[in-house]
Structure formats: structure tokens, C-alpha cells
Amino acid sequence: MYRKREFTVFGLSFLDVMSCGFGAVILIYILINHASESTSQEINLQLLAEVRDIEEKIEDETDDLVVLRNTVKEKDDEIITTEELILLLVQAIRELELQIRTLAQSEDSQKDTIIELQAELRRLEEEAARLAGSVEADATVGVNLEAFEEGGDRQYLTGLRTGGNNILILMDASASMLGDTIVNIIRRRNMSDNQKLQSAKWQRAIRTVEWITANLPGDTQFQLYTFNTDIQAAIPGKESEWLNTLDREDREKVIDHVKSVVPGGGTSLHHAFARASALEPEPDNIFLIVDGLPTQGFDAPSGTTISSRNRVELFLSSLAEIPTNSSINIILFQMEGDPMAAPSYWRLAQMTGGSFLAPSEDWP
Asked: What residues pair up with 243 in beta bridges, in sequence order?
């Protein structure tokens, strides 16, 4: 007898079809999710690389900003120094104008003296105008984009004038003459006196004195003082006397004294220039062997440190002690940490009709 077959929706074939459909959906989801993760990782790597690049640029720009700020500060210091020198020149001009008017009104005035003073007045006015122009140039000049390096390592500036009737040698014997860097100065300052005397920089200074005395004219008089916070004559008992260049014994005593001096202490140009002004007659030619701006005036400083601006102020105030008619020749053994020394001493040489020498390590 025939039995009718029952129909069911959830048969084996239907379940197979549903399983295949669900499997296909899961496979598609896995593929899409994997692709999204790969793309996200690539984007993150690119962003990290861009962030690192921006951070490096920020660091470089920060370093450049520090350099620019230091350069601007140095320029500001130079402008201030030049302006102060202009004030000194203006004061000197006014004094000369007063002398000219006084001589012109005097019945005993001499035309030659007036002409000399007028020539000196014109020279000072030209110097003041030149310095005023340099102030304006310093205020508008930009920072150099590239550094220019000269070939070789020599820095000779020739033109030292060894002539004169009364020649004075002022030799810096402060602790800074022990080395060219602050580290070496501190290190040698704690050594024995014999080791200090053998310092390369001090030996160069001694050879410089020997070179100057060897090139002095035979018909002149000379004197030598070493100075730091005080001043000392080369030959005891002859502090206020001029020595004869033809006297071999005096010349040898001067060199022996220089070789025995142990550098130490600070630097006072006030004492050196004041002693020079006290000589009779005043020196007409001065050799100043020095390595930087002064660290004190007549009196000891109140603190243990001194700024570059204060050193410039001490230098400018010491100019009031300079002998009236002396040409000053500067021999500068430049040390680190004193950027205003070279321009300040160069201007002093120009103002007094002297010369400026910043020698290389193999001179003299």
C-alpha cells in the first residue's frame, strides 16, 4: 500500500545551503578586516615618520634660534661699546675746541700750536663720524648665512712702530696668561711656580718682550712694568726712572725680571696706565702685551665673577688714565670667553695712533 511522503523545510539539503552561505559571509568578513588592519598599520607608520621628521626640524630650528640670539647679544654689546667710544671722542673734541678758542684769544698764542690742534680736531671728528657709521651698520646688518674660512692659520697685522724717545713696555702678568682656554688656566693655576713659568703662552709673552727690546732704537730710553692687580717695575729702585737702551746691564736685568715673574691674580689697566702717566717725561710710545679686557679697576671687585659688559666698562674707564701724547701698540694674545677684547683694543690703537697685532702661535 502506497504511503505519502512527508515534506519538511529543514531537510539536509537546506542545511547544507545555509551552512555554505554563512561560511561565505564569514570568509568575506575575515578578508575585509585583514585588509583594513594592513591599511591602518601602513598609515600609522607614515604618520610616525612624518612626526619624527617634524621633531628633527623643530630641534634644528631651536639650535639655530639659540645661535641667532647669541649673535644678536654680541652685536648689541659691540654697538654699546662703539657708542661709548663716540662719547669719549666727542668729549675730546670739545676739550680741543676749548683749547683752540683759548689760544686764539691769547696774545701769546702760536700759529703752529693752533694748526696742530686743528689737525687733531679734524682727526677726532673723522674718527667719531666713522664710529657713528659703524653703529648704524651694526644695527642694520644681518646674520651671515655661511661662514668664510681663510686659508692658513696666520693672523699677522703688521705696522708696529718701535721708535720714540721714551718707550714703555706694559706686560700683563695675570693668571690668564697661563693658557688660552679657561680650563687650561684653572688647571695651571694650581700647579707649582716652576710649571707656571713654563706655560707656552707665558713663554710667548717673554719672547715678545725680548723681541721688542732687541728692536729698540739705540738712542732712546725705555722702561718695563709687569702688572696684574698691582704693578711692578723691572728693576727695583728705578720705578720712576727711564733706562738707557745702550746699557746692556739694564737690558739684561729687565729680561731676567720678566723670566722670574709668576703670572697670577686679576687684571687692572687702571694701575698700568696711571703709572705710565706718572713717568717724567711721559712715554711717547707704549707697547701693551695683554690677553683680554680688565677684571678690576683701582679697587678689588666685590664679587667672584664679572660679565663681559662690566669688563668693557672697566676698559673704558681706564682710558682716562692714559698719558696724553702716547701712542699705544697692542699685542693681543686672545683668550676664549672675551669676544669684546679684540675690537676694544683695536679701537684704542686707532684712537692713539698706535697699531694692533694679534699674532699667531709661532710669533715672534
From this structure: 222
User: How far is the CA of 325 from the CAs of 94, 117, 282, 321, in angstroms?
Assistant: 17, 12, 8, 12
Give the whole-angstrom CA distance, residue 31 versus residue 38: 11
Query: Are 308 and 77 contacting, i.e. CB atoms less than 8 angstroms apart?
Result: yes
Question: What values do phi and psi take at 169, rounded to 5?
Answer: -110, 120
Residue 323 cell numbers, joined: 698719558
Q: What is the pLDDT of residue 59?
A: 82
Residue type, 29: Y
Which H or E run contains 338?
none
- Under a CB-based contact definition with an 8 Å cutoff, are residues 205 and 261 in contact? no
- Predicted confidence at residue 159, as pLDDT, reads 55
Integer angstrom CA distances of residue 164 from 119, 121, 345: 21, 23, 21
In angstroms, the CA 60 to CA 72 distance is: 18
Q: How many CA atoms are closer than 13 Å to the CA of 282, on its beta-carbon side? A: 14
**H or E, element range at 310:** helix 308-318
Q: Can you tell me which residue has the cell 728705578?
A: 238
Mean pLDDT per 10-residue section of the chain, whose length is 364 residues: 53 67 75 60 72 82 78 70 73 75 63 69 68 50 36 40 85 91 84 91 92 84 93 89 89 92 92 92 93 89 79 90 90 86 90 86 72
Cβ distance 122 to 89 under 8 Å? no
pTM: 0.58
Residue 85's nearest CA partner among 335, 340, 326 is 340
